[in-house]
Design a protein that fits this description.
Layout (H helix, E strand, L loop, with lengths): L1 E5 L6 H14 L5 E4 L4 E5 L2 H10 L5 E2 L2
Antiparallel strand pairs: 1-3, 1-4, 2-3
Helix pairs in contact: 1-2
Length: about 60
Amino acid sequence: MTTIFTVPDMTCGHCEKTVRSALGGALPGAAVTVDLAAKTVTVAGDAMAAEDAIREAGYSPEKAG
């Protein structure tokens, strides 16, 4: 299952790297796409684990759509 999150407080390349790292730790091998300009993160895998990982990294994810 693929989930798209809007992450409004993801504002720079460092933020993107932090989010990717957090998701890599929580969902090893999961496909992750980050669109920094749109402030979205698309994750294939457990949506709840992904949301928790993004929050634990210090960001405020919201499920899009």
